[in-house]
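Project channel, design review

CF: Before we commit to the Periophthalmus magnuspinnatus constructs, I'd like one complete example in the thread so the newer folks can see what an input/output pair looks like. Taking non-specific serine/threonine protein kinase.
RD: sounds good, go ahead.
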Amino acid sequence: MNRYTTLKQLGDGTYGSVLLGKCNETGELVAIKRMKRKFFSWEECLNLREVKSLKKLSHANVVKLKEVIRENDQLYFVFEYMKENLYQLMKERNKLFPESVIRNILFQILQGLSYIHTNGYFHRDMKPENLLCMGPELVKIADFGLAREIRSQPPYTDYVSTRWYRAPEVLLKSTSYNSPVDMWAVGCIMAELYTLRPLFPGNSEVDEIFKICQVLGTLKKSDWPQGYNLASSMNFRFPKCVPASLHSLIPNASDDAIALMRDLLQWDPDKRPSALQALRYPYFHVGVSNVKAQSKFLEESVQTLSLCTTRPDSSHDQVKSPIETGEYSPPPLQPLHPLHIIQQETYKEEEPLSLVKNRQQQVSGHMGL
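CF: and here is what came back for non-specific serine/threonine protein kinase:
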């Protein structure tokens, strides 16, 4: 670790802490994550999900793990530095994002997810805090501590993802979920980008399902039989709700945006589009010039990395499944409520943080990636 100088603490979590650091040789800013548990061998380190997944993934919209260092039985991840996360970016806003900006953010998120899913992983903890940004121009998926291989065998743990972005199958204790849980989370994030407030801010798992029913309406058994069976096994009965109009809830979203959101937020995971299918929706068909601009944007994003890290602050057919129109009259949109900040205990627990300055300098080993 003597190759890096720590500058300040960025955060603290249950499993690790993160500091802003600087490479002594190049001056490049990095984020250093220090794991809290001890690691007595490299074999232990290499079995970590975060290492297993990130060492195999290299994409412009996936945060880069530069190296792993084990020193005095302490494990450190050295990541490229990003100025902020998407939650912070939204919190700082005093007005709504233009749809063109939201489209570019979602384009990058879906590009990253498509790459992750294609390479055999799903994230399981997609939320604004785990999307790192250099402003809205560059967005990367981060924090793979809960990532799973798609081919791995269930049962999986039921506690994944922050509650507000947790898919119905996870809330209903399914142990055989897969990559569609990430797509549900993208639908929640998409809605939040338009309104700057969470779509389903439940204060418990039961309340989360209730919030979902208030928007999507009561689940019909014919729409998702497996979900009904999961609920029955928990002795849970869905509340009686008529579906809300997404157009009324999110009036600044275009018809194409609503169509994509509606399909991402399907009860049945099998009816949600994949990341690749979502990228083919009309929402992203904004003219040849815009498509070329998005391709150019991705190329420039890679070139921008070296500049960003020196800143001191820092083919399937799409699946359609319509939602019924109800008589529910939603309340007027409000700015982001303080509860969005207060109820972040799970966020804080899962956010990376950092490194202590007073430590021995003896190096046990490192792994460059």
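RD: helpful, thanks. The domain at 4-82+351-360 is CATH 3.30.200.20 (Phosphorylase Kinase; domain 1).
CF: The chain has two domains: 4-82+351-360, 85-284+318-348.
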